[in-house]
């Protein structure tokens, strides 16, 4: 144990793994239908599917018969059927049926790994560690971080998918470093960030910046600032960013909340969901209207910041991938970091790895 902790300490951050004892986000709810979906979480292929009752299951994406991917198969009732010879599997991972089993043959005693999975707030959360071992150490069960604004009628959501060929640490550092507003120019939501304070805890880093925000959502037409940059007026707002391992959360004043839900794929690939919420909390008159109407407003405005969010993601991904490429070509080159929030981020990544060890 001691030796692996020491190894972690001395390993380069860009080669570090993940602490599997957390809930990761592997898909949006809408992506998982009865047709199986193959995903990868830290080099582990996983198949997600919905049974005929609508419940989501997650199994190792590997047929124990010939080692092909179960995600090529289909769901029949509550069983997952392999595409190759039609063996069927229960959600527990046990083989339930072989279509050509002879009368004198027994079902093969093979079992594939089942992962704890939860569908919550529009996303599929998966626990890749050993949940029984972890819950034995805690009095309360570990729960997914969750996204409470997802169902809340006062928040309008936009989701952008981040696919980047880079280690997850580059993405988290980008998200925690508010001095990179410079990159975004026309898409920029904030400017003139100044880091004021950092708090570090076992599972999180909170960095508090003061910044100037371009948006204020206090009039019914405020949402149009997302489309017409000329309507924006700079004003001071607190800008808080948090690495809540393994995810990221941010608030800009009272009007915006952004989440980044992570699915690290490998040492050089990361998938993540960026969720931008615009708050309607300032419109108290709206809150007195019937719930069905408020739901209609929320649903109609879903994705209203899509162009903005996708634009930000494109710019960030380009920089993050270049950092990764530069590292792969010249791992010996040292970078010069002035933002101490990033030192805290790297410390948290390393300490999470030691907890895993
Ligand atoms: S490989 Fe899956 S049933 Fe044969
Ligand atoms: Fe950015």
TrEMBL record:
Keyword tags: 2Fe-2S, Dioxygenase, Iron, Iron-sulfur, Metal-binding, Oxidoreductase
GO molecular function: 2 iron, 2 sulfur cluster binding; dioxygenase activity; metal ion binding; monooxygenase activity; oxidoreductase activity, acting on paired donors, with incorporation or reduction of molecular oxygen
Start and end residues of each Rieske domain: 23-126
Alphabetized InterPro entries for the sequence: Cholesterol_7-desaturase, Rieske_2Fe-2S, Rieske_2Fe-2S_sf, VanA_C_cat
Gene3D superfamilies: Naphthalene 1,2-dioxygenase Alpha Subunit, Chain A, domain 1, Rieske [2Fe-2S] iron-sulphur domain
SUPFAM superfamilies found in the cross-reference section: Bet v1-like (SSF55961), ISP domain (SSF50022)
UniProt superkingdom: Bacteria
Record-linked Pfam families: Rieske, VanA_C
PROSITE patterns, per database record: RIESKE (PS51296)
The name this protein goes by in its record: Aromatic ring-hydroxylating dioxygenase subunit alpha
Organism the protein comes from: Symplocastrum torsivum CPER-KK1
């Amino acid at each position: 144990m001691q030796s692996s902790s020491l190894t972690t300490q001395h390993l380069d951050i860009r080669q570090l793994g993940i602490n599997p004892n957390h809930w990761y986000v592997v898909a949006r709810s809408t992506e998982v239908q009865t047709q199986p979906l193959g995903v990868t979480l830290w080099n582990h292929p996983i198949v997600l599917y919905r049974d005929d009752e609508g419940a989501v299951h997650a199994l190792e994406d590997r047929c124990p018969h010939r080692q092909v991917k179960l995600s090529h198969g289909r769901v029949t009732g509550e069983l997952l059927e392999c595409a190759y010879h039609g063996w069927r599997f229960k959600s527990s991972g046990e083989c339930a049926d072989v279509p050509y089993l002879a009368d004198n043959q027994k079902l093969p005693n093979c079992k594939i790994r089942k992962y704890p999975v939860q569908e919550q707030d529009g996303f599929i959360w998966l626990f890749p560690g050993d949940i029984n071992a972890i819950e034995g150490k805690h009095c309360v069960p570990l729960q997914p971080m969750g996204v409470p604004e997802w169902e809340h009628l006062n928040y309008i959501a936009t989701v952008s998918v981040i696919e980047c060929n880079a280690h997850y640490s580059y993405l988290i550092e980008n998200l925690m470093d508010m001095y990179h507003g410079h990159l975004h120019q026309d898409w920029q939501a904030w400017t003139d960030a100044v880091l004021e304070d950092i708090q570090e805890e076992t599972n999180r880093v909170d960095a508090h910046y003061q910044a100037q925000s371009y948006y204020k959502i206090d009039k019914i037409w405020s949402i149009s600032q997302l489309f017409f940059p000329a309507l924006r007026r700079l004003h001071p707002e607190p800008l808080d960013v948090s690495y809540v391992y393994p995810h990221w959360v941010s608030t800009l004043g009272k009007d915006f909340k952004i989440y980044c839900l992570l699915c690290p794929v490998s040492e050089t690939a990361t998938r993540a969901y960026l969720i931008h919420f615009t708050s309607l909390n300032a419109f108290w008159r709206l809150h007195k209207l019937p719930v069905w109407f408020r739901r209609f407003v929320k649903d109609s405005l879903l994705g209203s910041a899509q162009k903005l969010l996708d634009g930000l993601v494109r710019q960030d991904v380009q920089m993050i991938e270049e950092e990764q490429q530069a590292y792969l070509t010249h791992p010996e080159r040292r970078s010069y970091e002035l933002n101490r929030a990033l030192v805290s981020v790297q410390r948290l990544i390393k300490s999470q790895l030691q907890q895993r060890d």
